Known about the structure:
Number of helices: 0
Largest sheet: 7 strands, mixed
Oligomer: single chain
Amino acid sequence: VQLQASGGGLVQAGGSLRLSCAASGSFHSIANMGWYRQAPGNQRELVARISNMHDENYAESVKERFTISIDIAKNTAYLQMDSLKPEDTAVYYCNGNGYLRGKGWSPGRAFNAWGPGTLVTVSS
């Protein structure tokens, strides 16, 4: 399973960016997709996560500013980031987990995959 992220870049404080993450390869189903970020000198932290049932979780620092969504048919998750702040500057990593193909139409073993990361820079 491969994850490909896009949409990072440079934006001024108060601006918006939209990240996309598409899962490809041979798998049975996606269970959850999410975004994590890592700023220099910091540990990787959860930003937002969404299940295939559209249950959403957000870090406190991004609530009311970021919105995660998922298009199950396209195996793609989106992160709409509004009112960006300089402290949002980080490398953002897409994560997805689910199940590989099993026998017949059944799900097989679980997988957990990461994308290569996309840089988001917010200038003050």
